[in-house]
């Protein structure tokens, strides 16, 4: 398979040998009133209002646009305070335009308030697009852009859309390795080159069938030569202080674009839980466990990101990107104090204190090689990608428990665990786009992925200071998975109607081997994933649309791992190698009114949905966290979204969803179903102040009513955030202040009351914080970068 992928890539890069002959366009810019050179002006070549190539003037006022193919272009030169210069050019040889004098534009400076563009919300047939190019949002970081995107909910630094965590893409390539890492990655990435964010609730056939909603971050193409960078730092005070910082650097010269990023995060985070578990025999309570749990987590984390683009010519580009997450230090201390009331015999009461100390180190290395070839036919494109991941995680844990018993001698227990997981992923992908006509488009592609995972767990019980291997709780698990995928897609536009249909097929082959039990589990299946989108423009103010997509949720590698990982003597987590993939069918009917109001009715039927269920074992008084397939999950509801300006310096997005969740599952051969109507509402206010619009503010409100998650009902939560941002020194310096969860409304409870399960949990996360930030931009701050971070689809199924 590796040979096939490599051969395929070499075949497509062969096109680079046939690049067209190219030319240079140059000139010198001066100010008309003083004849002094103008530095850092933008000079771009356009065709049909699309920017194709560009450069910027140096300190002598000279600019050179390189690698220009023969043809007709419009030259556009712009610089703040001067009238934009335009000229039609016919290029068939190297062209020196000589000296160009820019005229001063007196109306663009003194006495006139600068007006920034405002974000625009627009719907296309298969996605909702939040366009922020040229707006104040591009002066923030990429995570903040996602947080401000209408319809996106952020809870505990985790993205959520329609009750699930979306998959993040950058320029149609999947990002990041696990859900917990994306916050640090994007929070340290400047948004200056973000063009738009696409919310794709029913992804088309081009995208992997794995997962649900997609957030695709579209980055603008880098045009301007030179160097620039930024350094930044943040300090956050919650229960404990934490801080982060980093540096971004970018350089473009000639055919090369290079972007490098490093960021570091040091954190200590607190979490408190109160728990009450009623263990039962039939309907009679046999014992009640009341526990107070405090958990502190320390971590030092490094992120490195490197992107290199090489443009052979206008038609061919080769790109390399690599990102490394390195976690050399991670520690978690969990202290559990429990009082156990035996309801059958008073003299059997006891209490305990359990201390769990865990240490972990991890690295995630992702490498990508991309090739893009543009054909002579406008819009026709061939792209190829090879991806490799190397993942290694090691964890050591020591658990000691002291028991105080009413009627007998006190005693203690202790054990240690040592675990390791290594994963290697190799994938290759090819995509082809062909405009059939001005109103029709065809796409096709193929992908191959191979995943190999090796996991080990050893538990040692400690008695009288002597460690003894616990064979029953030790194992090695080998896992191999191969996925072969292909897709076709067709889109057509008429005057009032639009249509897009696609089919994606994926063949999956899995083998899992538990060495201690000699148990081998295999799965081999093919699934077809159709997608369809129809849109009808009823009038200039009304558009009606309907969508359908079929998706799959494959188990994560940890979900399939059969190890029993003990947290304490009375709680453990375990995977399930027999987990089946979950198949979801998604339907949506919507209406768009006046390009401002969006109303969607949706229905999702998810067969064999995968949950980590929290189950109490009433025979042994033990809590189990078990990955399981439920029979089905049904989710339907009504969404309302709008984005508008109240006044010129105040815009608002409002999103509310009324939905019903229903889960059906079988426990001890008894079928149980629970359902509940719920609501979440978010209101995001963005303000701009001062004449130069250098002061901005954001006030956001989020409310989530009580809802169900798996077997539990989760109480309502609310969140109020306030942030201020001030730019100084011609936007070279940015100062920020954020108040998060001002009223501590994200404390919540989980209640389980059904059949033989009876428990209550209260959770207080370390989310009420105050944060100050600083960013300094240096070099040519007018540059646009090629920054991006990529990973494979399969990496998303790695868990922390």
Structural summary, described in words:
The protein is mainly beta and 800 residues long. The chain has three domains: 2-108, Sandwich (Immunoglobulin-like); 120-219, TonB-dependent receptor, plug domain (Ferric Hydroxamate Uptake Protein, Chain A, domain 1); 226-797, TonB-dependent receptor, beta-barrel domain (Maltoporin, Chain A). It contains four helices and 46 strands. It has a 22-stranded antiparallel barrel. Strands 8-9-14-15-12-13 form a six-stranded mixed β-sheet, covered by helices on one side. A four-stranded antiparallel β-sheet has the order 3-2-5-6, with no helix packed on it. Its main location: membrane.
Gist of the model:
By secondary structure, this protein is mainly β. Helix content is 4%, strand content 67%.
Give start-end ranges of low-pLDDT stretches: 1-19, 107-115
Annotation, overall tally of beta strands: 46
CATH class of the largest domain: Mainly Beta
CATH fourth-tier homologous superfamily of the largest domain: TonB-dependent receptor, beta-barrel domain
The third-level CATH topology of the largest domain is Maltoporin, Chain A
CATH architecture of the largest domain: Beta Barrel
**Overall domain count:** 3
What Rg do the Cα atoms give? Answer: 29 Å
Mean pLDDT: 87
The number of helical segments is: 4
Class inferred from helices and paired strands: mainly beta
